[in-house]
Amino acid sequence: MAHYFIAIPIPEDLQHVYNGWQKELRIALPYKKWMHPEDLHITLKFLGEANEGSVTALIKKVSQLSLPKSFIIELGTIGFFGKYDQPRVLWVDVKKRNELLRLQTEIEAALYTIGFEKEKRDYRPHMTLAKKWKGVSVLADDRRRTLQEKYSLKQRFSVQEITLFRIHPNKTPSYEEVAKFPLL
């Protein structure tokens, strides 16, 4: 079975901005997987494996939701998840806005009613740039601070839609758009 997630896609102009960051950061950071620019997104709900019936029910359920109107998202500086000196994920921070948190909460609750598990961790909005640290090198404190100072540029965009994506791990780009849900 395929894996799916619901996310906010990143506009093409910002894909180019962050792809420029990725090109520069590849020299400084030894990650195994760098996200394709077209795969950049802000996850609202990771669904995991889902069969065709579950996907159909999900699309119907989300289509019936009273989704919020479009709103502004703000991206900021890079950050890291995982082991401090060899972090498993490089990401860009997303400001927690009420509209974003409300949207994520509504999707989480609605999908729970049709059988998708609730996330156990608190929602931490971000946009992944790279993952899977490789090698024996470590990210020292001073290098981390220098990178975070250099790669800290507020970017804003209007969220016009959310998207259901299917994951194709052996393809590039890896995420296939299955359904779009406009924010009116």
Radius of gyration over C-alpha positions, nearest whole angstrom: 17 Å
How many β-strand stretches? 9
Assess the beta-strand content as a share of residues: 35-45%
Query: Can you identify the CATH superfamily?
Result: Cyclic phosphodiesterase
Number of helices: 4
CATH architecture: Alpha-Beta Complex
Write the element-wise H/E pattern from the N-terminal end onward: EHEEHEEHEHEEE
- Spatial strand sequence of the major β-sheet: 2-6-5-4-7
Name of the CATH class: Alpha Beta
Percent range of helical residues = 25-40%
Distance between the termini: 32 Å
Q: Can you tell me the overall shape?
A: globular
Structural class designation: alpha+beta
Q: What name does CATH use for the topology?
A: Cyclic Phosphodiesterase, Chain: A
Q: Low-confidence parts lasting 5 or more residues at pLDDT below 50?
A: none
The overall number of domains is 1
Averaged pLDDT: 96
Largest sheet: 5 strands, antiparallel
Overview of this structure, please?
The chain is an alpha+beta fold. The chain has helices at 12-28, 52-64, 98-112, 141-150, and strands at 2-9, 31-34, 41-50, 71-81, 89-94, 126-133, 152-159, 161-167, 175-182. The strands form 2 sheets. It has a 5-stranded antiparallel beta sheet. The protein has a 4-stranded antiparallel beta sheet with strand order 3-1-8-9, covered by helices on one side. It has a single domain (2-182), classed as Alpha-Beta Complex (Cyclic Phosphodiesterase, Chain: A), CATH 3.90.1140.10. The mean pLDDT is 96. A hairpin with a 7-residue loop joins strand 4 and strand 5.
